């Protein structure tokens, strides 16, 4: 239901742009930066700047002095009917402090409440935000005064359709399974997808194959880390430690790697406990790409319940050992991988390869 509501908001925004009937206030938020920027450009195209962008195209990035906000709110367009104001990462719709991000105080909330009640018809204001609490009073006030759109990452069917359209536009072909595989090996977000598709289209022939993806696409860190898990499952020390060594050379964060290993193994354990027996079972339990679900299902089949439980439990312990200074971070991670490989050896009653 919530996903449908979000999609309807985007469709409603498209209708506004098609009919050239803009709201005076927009709040764009959510994970998909590509779509936020895309629709800002679409709105910008409907508001001529009359050759005076310093008056009719105003951008404020980060939390500004409130006198600056006040000046922007009260000024008028120059030599044109409308002007565009884009306010980026104001963080006024947050409710909790996080690092340098501070929620507005009572005086600032009162300031914005009054501004949202009085927006000039000759101005279009867009808040483009990364941090939003949709329960906050200011967010509700802004939504009531204007139009808020949550640009979440696209669903797999939408991404698949997007890929197929882009490849067809380039005069080439890609089947849906290959499109799904591409989604499963890259970081989320259309900006990443567009960049990797450009590389693929320039590299491949008339048809995009999975092998093309493996050769030219920059794979997500989570996928690279999965190679460690696969190496452990196969009892292949060279593979597991080789991936680890490469990541050490790249100066990757040990804590980031530990988190991803934990996430991988926890998903396998979830599938094991649920008795998943097919890719469809795995997709229904985990969601996401069928290719990713299949990777986790293979892992769930390859490890025993005892191994998965042990691997999950050890990571918080290792995190504590590193932070308490008992062991260095890379040494702890390498010891964890070797420990898992030794456990694999015992469970298989054979030898660790490599």
From TrEMBL:
Limits of the DNA polymerase III delta N-terminal domain: 26-145
One Gene Ontology cellular component annotation held by this UniProt entry: DNA polymerase III complex
Record-linked SUPFAM superfamilies: P-loop containing nucleoside triphosphate hydrolases (SSF52540), post-AAA+ oligomerization domain-like (SSF48019)
Domain of life of the organism encoding this protein: Bacteria
InterPro entries on file: DNA_pol3_clamp-load_cplx_C, DNA_pol3_delta-like_C, DNA_pol3_delta_N, DNA_polIII_delta, P-loop_NTPase
EC number(s) on file: 2.7.7.7
Keywords associated with the record: DNA replication, DNA-directed DNA polymerase, Nucleotidyltransferase, Transferase
Gene Ontology molecular function terms on file: DNA binding; DNA-directed DNA polymerase activity
Segments forming domain DNA polymerase III delta subunit-like C-terminal: 224-339
Family in the record: Belongs to the DNA polymerase HolA subunit family.
GO BP term, pick one: DNA-templated DNA replication
Catalysed reactions listed for this entry: DNA(n) + a 2'-deoxyribonucleoside 5'-triphosphate = DNA(n+1) + diphosphate
Designated name of the protein: DNA polymerase III subunit delta
Naturally occurring in which organism (per UniProt): Candidatus Ornithomonoglobus merdipullorum
């Amino acid at each position: 239901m919530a996903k449908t509501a979000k999609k309807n908001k985007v469709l409603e925004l498209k209708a506004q742009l098609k009919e050239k009937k803009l709201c005076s206030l927009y709040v764009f938020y959510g994970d998909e930066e590509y779509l936020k920027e895309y629709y800002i450009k679409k709105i910008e195209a409907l508001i001529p700047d009359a050759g005076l962008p310093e008056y009719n195209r105003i951008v404020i990035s980060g939390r500004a002095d409130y006198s600056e906000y006040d000046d922007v709110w009260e000024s008028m367009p120059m030599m044109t009917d409308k002007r565009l104001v884009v306010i980026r990462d104001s963080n006024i719709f947050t409710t909790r402090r996080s690092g340098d991000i501070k929620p507005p105080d009572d005086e600032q909330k009162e300031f914005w409440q009054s501004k949202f009640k009085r927006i000039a018809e000759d101005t279009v204001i867009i808040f483009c935000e990364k941090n939003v609490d949709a329960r906050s009073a200011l967010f509700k006030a802004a939504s009531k005064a204007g139009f808020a759109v949550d640009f979440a990452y696209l669903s797999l069917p939408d991404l698949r359709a997007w890929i197929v359209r882009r490849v067809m536009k380039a005069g080439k072909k890609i089947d849906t399974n290959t499109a799904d595989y591409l989604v499963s090996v890259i970081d989320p977000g259309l900006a990443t997808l567009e960049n990797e598709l450009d590389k693929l289209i320039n590299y491949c022939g008339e048809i995009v194959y999975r092998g093309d993806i493996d050769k030219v696409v920059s794979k997500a860190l989570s996928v690279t880390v999965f190679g460690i898990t696969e190496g452990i499952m196969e009892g292949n020390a060279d593979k597991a430690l080789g991936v680890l060594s490469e990541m050490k050379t790249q100066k990757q964060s040990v804590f980031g790697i530990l988190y991803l290993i934990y996430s991988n193994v926890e998903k396998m354990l979830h599938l094991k406990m649920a008795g998943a027996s097919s890719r469809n079972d795995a997709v229904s339990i985990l969601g996401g790409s069928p290719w990713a679900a299949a990777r986790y299902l293979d892992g769930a089949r390859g490890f025993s319940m005892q191994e998965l439980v042990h691997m999950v439990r050890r990571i918080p312990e290792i995190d504590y050992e590193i932070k308490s200074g008992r062991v260095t971070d890379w040494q702890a991670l390498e010891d964890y991988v070797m420990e898992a490989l030794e456990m694999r050896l015992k469970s298989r009653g054979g030898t660790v390869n490599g």
